[in-house]
Specification:
23 helices, single chain, alpha/beta, 4 domains
């Protein structure tokens, strides 16, 4: 009912809010015209940060496929702003909207490259960063249509306003149709300048002078002119202004410098050091001329796994006070520039790494633009930073680490099962991890399959088997393949698996000590019963819990039950060993008696101390596997707990199918001892399964973590079945 009633809204979406806003367009009856402008802040548009369930992956696929297929019909102007390297939750590479030739109304920029912002933000502060707030507010004011008093419907104007404020700010107010004629009026003094290099120092606030530079002679020698003041710098290419006779510089009571230069004399090529130089070698250039501006071309720099430290050392002569120099890293294929401000003379370290890899068809070169002082000499040194390379590995592939940890544990698990089959004893988890967790057992197969998928006949055979796309191919399509990255992750994964196993073992011992303190000492089981009377009831109860509440909650309860059983076994073994120390003769008689009973049926075995130790070693590995399944299901549990006031049953529930299989399996394994499965006909087959499953975890689970538990429960299920076959 208002005079200028709005017909649409502008949306600013932070993090997943930006993706939800994009998803509105996929709704069947949603009117696209209701949204005029979409600005997203730290929104992972490309893929989920951690693909922990198939629902989020399917959601991303639905949204992105819709935007790609309907790009010609989507008139929504979209701006995506990333936080840069300080955002540890959402890496900036995920925030860049897909560049489509027929969809030009989308912009993606990192906050460090936004004019008048120039800083990186973390995941939350991107919302309240004052510089970014002001930039956004100024853009909204310029987007208002003078006639309708609403945000303009003109897509070209919207894009030009966003370009003005977020991409390239010309240090003046936005003008939709800028005037090419200016009136230079007033009583200011006019001073002609014929030299190629000029410096002005203002002493009197009332001094306002026009300096005129005739261009006729300068065009013959120079290609560019550069001017800087305390508040502004500007570079003009002379051939872009062929009709101009003079350059006029108006100096309103501030210091200023101008110089004409030839581009070739200010462009210096600096090849970066090799990835495997590990910072032991460096390359250097010295700027010993008196220029104000230099372009250093960083040759062979365009991959996300490259990372360097650039050291700029400035030495000044005849300078009594500090002078400001600015070093700008310019990445021409994406808006991810960054600024470093230094007071010279000084030594300044600049970190150089990428959010987006250079496209294959892009021939541009990354630049270090140096705005310098004519009184100083600059020495620029570049060397590979090994620590920052590891940082890039973690930034781009850290989400795949759980898959590599579980792959290592599976290899150790298979080794333990095989040692039980071949020798009758289960070796220590740490020993088997050291022996079995080798990258050459996993990586060659993945590399070979990736190579074969390049052939049409193998791809057709692969599709005929209904196998999902190899994760390595997904990463290659996103320009995220590092050399040796799988090896590095495997080493990290094995280390994590080792320390995780050590921590879980210590926790079990600590809990068993607490158990013995609170309760009277328990004995080793006299008879091994795989299915105790209360086991079916417990299994049914947990399955009902999974069905009526949340699968992840039932998995957590199953995990706690399993830990309780292992703690009880550890306490019993500790009691037995203590009694053995006090009365060794009685202990030997008990051991002989228990060994005599091993000839009885499997379901009525007496557990010996050595069997209990073997069982604990096996259970410690199973606990490590189960711990990671619980961790991967935690987001689902947290979501359910946060929304309990709205609904009691989680629907859809990504963990429910897994819970239905895992609950009875772990219920049986909690009562399983090595003595009961040594003679199983299924044990040899069970011991052979973890190796191909460890390969499958890396091949299909490194970029789709929700698939990993599917590879884990198979050997656990076979292990449980060994009690009956």
């Amino acid at each position: 009912g208002q005079e200028f009633a709005p017909t649409s809204v502008a949306i600013i979406g932070h993090s997943m809010g930006g993706l939800v806003a994009r998803a509105l367009l996929t709704l069947k009856n949603f009117k696209q015209d209701l949204i005029n402008l979409l600005i997203t802040q730290a929104t992972p548009h490309v893929a989920p940060v951690m693909p922990l369930d198939r629902f989020i992956t399917d959601f991303y696929m639905t949204v992105n496929n819709y935007w790609i297929l309907n790009a010609r019909h989507i008139n929504l102007t979209t701006l995506s702003v990333a936080g840069g390297f300080r955002d540890y939750q959402v890496r900036s590479g995920l925030t860049f909207l897909p560049k489509l030739s027929h969809h030009t109304s989308a912009l993606s920029v990192v906050s460090s490259a936004v004019p008048k912002t120039w800083v990186s933000t973390d995941h939350l502060s991107i919302v309240w960063c004052k510089q970014l707030q002001l930039t956004t507010i100024r853009a909204f004011f310029d987007l208002i249509d003078a006639d309708t008093k609403q945000i303009t419907q003109n897509p070209k104007k919207k894009l030009s306003v966003l370009n003005h404020h977020f991409i390239r700010h010309p240090a003046k107010h936005f003008e939709e149709n800028p005037s090419i004629i200016s009136d230079l009026t007033g009583t200011s003094m006019w001073v002609p300048v014929k030299v190629s290099k000029w410096t002005y120092v203002a002493y009197n606030e009332s001094d306002k002078i026009y300096f005129t530079f005739p261009l006729a002679n300068h065009r013959k020698i120079y290609t560019h002119v550069y001017c800087q003041s305390t508040m502004l710098s500007l570079t003009l290419r002379l051939q872009d202004y062929p009709s101009l006779s003079h350059l006029v510089v108006y100096v309103p009571s501030i210091h200023g410098n101008c110089e004409f230069f030839k581009k070739e004399t200010r462009s210096i090529q600096l090849p970066v050091t090799h990835l495997f130089s590990f910072g032991l070698s460096s390359r250097k250039v010295i700027l010993n001329t008196s220029g104000l501006f230099y372009n250093i071309e960083l040759l062979n720099f365009g991959q996300i796994y490259q990372a360097f430290k650039i050291n700029v050392v400035s030495k000044c002569s005849g300078v009594k006070e500090e002078i400001t120099s600015i070093y700008k890293l310019h990445i021409p294929w994406s808006y991810e520039d960054s600024l470093t401000i230094a007071q010279v003379p000084s030594a300044t370290a600049i970190s150089v790494k990428l959010h987006i890899a250079q496209p294959e068809n892009d021939s541009h070169v990354a630049l270090l633009k140096m705005y310098t002082s004519s009184d100083c000499q600059y020495e620029v040194t570049v060397k590979t930073s090994f620590s920052q390379i590891l940082g890039q590995v973690v930034r781009f592939h850290g989400g795949a680490l759980p898959a590599y940890v579980i792959s290592s544990i599976l290899l150790a698990y298979g080794g333990q099962l095989y040692s039980l089959f071949s020798t009758g004893h289960c070796l220590e988890y740490a020993t088997m991890l050291d022996k079995e967790a080798k990258p050459y057992k996993v990586d060659p197969f993945v590399i070979m399959v990736k190579f074969l998928l390049g052939y049409k006949w193998f791809k057709e055979f692969w599709d005929m088997l209904l196998l999902p796309e190899l994760d390595a191919i997904v990463l290659t399509s996103q320009s995220m393949c590092f050399p040796l990255v799988s090896l590095i992750l495997f080493l990290f994964g094995t280390c994590t698996a080792y320390w995780g196993g050590l921590l879980s073992s210590m926790s079990v011992r600590l809990l068993s000590s607490l158990w013995l303190t609170l309760k009277r000492p328990s004995e080793l089981p006299k008879d091994i019963k795989i299915i105790s009377p209360d086991l079916p009831i417990l299994t049914v109860v947990l399955i009902i819990v999974s069905w009526t509440t949340c699968g992840a909650f039932a998995i957590l309860l199953t995990y706690l039950y399993y830990v309780f059983k292992i703690v009880h076994l550890q306490a019993s073994l500790t009691t037995f060993k203590n009694s053995q120390t006090v009365n060794p003769k009685h202990s030997r008689r008990s051991e002989k008696k228990s060994n005599h009973h091993k000839d009885s049926t499997v379901h009525h075995l007496r557990l010996s101390a050595s069997d209990a130790e073997d069982s604990l070693r096996m259970h410690s590995t199973v606990i490590n596997l189960l711990t990671w399944i619980v961790l991967l299901s935690m987001p689902s549990l947290i979501y359910w707990l946060k929304n309990l006031r709205y609904y009691f049953k989680l629907n859809p529930d990504p963990c429910k199918p897994l819970a239905f299989i895992l609950i009875p399996t772990m219920a049986v394994l909690g009562n399983t001892y090595t003595a009961s499965i040594k003679s199983s006909k299924l044990l040899k087959t069970t011991s052979q399964f973890p190796l191909p499953l460890a390969v499958g975890v890396i091949a299909f689970g490194s970029a789709h973590l929700y698939r990993v538990p599917c590879f884990v429960f198979i050997p656990l299920l076979l292990h449980a079945l060994c009690n009956f076959m």
